[in-house]
Amino acid sequence: MDIPRGTYGFRFAEDKELQLCVLFAAGYDVITSPSYRWDGLERTDGPLLLFQYTISGEGIYESGNRTHRVTAGQAILAEIPGPHRYYYHPESREPWEFLFLLFRPNLILPHWRKFLREAGEVPYLPLDSAPVRLSRMIVVDAGAGRINDPLAASSCVYQFMTELARMQVTTLRDRETWPENVRRAAEFIELNYSRMISIDQLAEQVSLSKYHLIRRFSAATGLTPGAYLTRIRTEKAMELLRGTGLSIESIAEQVGYSSGSYFIKAFRGLTGLTPGEFRRGDESLVYRKLFFD
């Protein structure tokens, strides 16, 4: 997914009659200079909540008397103002690449602090997790000018926060309880969705019969292996539809469908939209894919 580099700010007029979440800024950056440094007690733009997710490279996050190395897959969760600092690792040999979101605490602070208590200030989130995918989409939509009113911005913030909380109470907990062969099957699907995959092949990979694979996978995840594959393909297609100019046929091929018509049917069956409708933004920014389960 092509992510536009830069920072996008939002300053919509406040509506006294509506209580909305407030998106302050979103962006993507690649840092190579030791001069990159933020001090949470020196900033004057608060109160804000910061979610900053490292894609590659390394930074340092200091909070109170704790120092964290922030590497790929880790996020910084910080309240501004606050007793923290974060900066480019002075000994890093590669750029620090990250996504970030800044939003006001309005309406979401209890959810934020609950996640913070359970996950910590520098949690690990898989690159393919729902909050990270959604943060990428928010930055892409910001760069494309699609977040153009306070309701759309509020939708982005609340949806992101909901997925962050949902990940902690469901995905992280539940996946750890999956049997090892179910986890291996899910990982195989996630890595090979574009060239996939018969149930027989998947069963062979995890040393189960086809019957036992379907039964155990469905019991652990709530989805059959085929439905899980469709979900992964649809999520990947959403990123390509919003983040690239590829044709529907090309996207269908990239995510593993033999034809555009089959792709359209599967996509609409899961989301209620055709790929073209999703790309055009005919619906709001409430991405239905986040509620597949």
From TrEMBL:
PROSITE patterns the record matches: HTH_ARAC_FAMILY_2
Keywords of the record: DNA-binding, Transcription, Transcription regulation
A GO MF term: DNA-binding transcription factor activity
Domain HTH araC/xylS-type, residue spans: 183-281
Listed name of the protein: AraC family transcriptional regulator
Taxonomic classification: Bacteria, Bacillati, Bacillota, Bacilli, Bacillales
The encoding gene: agpT
